[in-house]
Amino acid sequence: MKALKAWVLLVGCALGGQAVAQCPPAQMSREQLIELREQKFSVDDDDARNALAIALLGCLGDPDPAVRDGVVYEAIATWGRGELLSTETVQFLRGALLNTLKAADDPRQLTHAFALLVLSEVARVDRIKPQFSAEQRGQMAAQLAEYVRGIDDYRGFEEGIGWRHQVAHASDVVLQLALNGELPAESVATLLDAMATQIATAATGYVHSEPERFARAAFYAHQRGVLDRAWWEGWLTRLSSPAPAESWGQAQQTHAGITRRNNLFAFYYALHFAAANANNEAGVELKALVLDAMKNSG
Questions:
Q1: 161-165-166 Cα angle (round to 5)
Q2: Tens of pLDDT, residues 219-240
Q3: 239 FRET partner, CA 20 to 30 A, in 15, 56, 210, 279?
């Protein structure tokens, strides 16, 4: 434990708030990364903790899930939720993660998936206690929407590698942004429209709880109440379209059509369950809207 504390203080001085693209971070071993988790990410020195949060970004694409998921994500989530990161660090993380998503992914396609997951925690920090300007928040929503539309890696869990799960992690960011009272309705609509392009995809049959993650984002966006009933009716109508087929009956004469409908109804079932258990007027409204959409989807 003393050795770990000494390293944390050392890295805080060495980094000076600058990110490093190496894993493990400079002067730190993989064993010390795991020890950090075992110590519940306790870092008393503020400067060292903030420097380490930035340094850990170098491990986003680490092939060991115990590092990228168990240390990188959990550390930043723990510190963010505990309000233990400075505004400057949160700002840096936002910019670095968005830049990561603009760049090419690593050969294993792990970095983008975990940049999204960590970005959801950064967005949560801003939702709980505003850290970003309206322009920064809007830019983040716009970039995320564009990214979501382009996702074509649908891998979830793989033994020996762990999770990728881009669509699920992206929906977690949508959830945090859509719940943010500082994000305007038009940005929420843009995010939901982007997510809709993945909900009923024909590219894969979802088997790793993706529909539940989509439904959670949609449910809480509806609960926020910034988009009216007419908007939701239109969104669900568009989502329920069998196009390019003329009907769902026709669509189900193809493997792609069957896959789309199965994904769509998995989403509807999850969203209906959430609405039915909301115990409020918004839930009653959403439950009725989802039932109508299901009826219109054959």
A1: 125
A2: 999 999 999 999 999 999 999 9
A3: 279
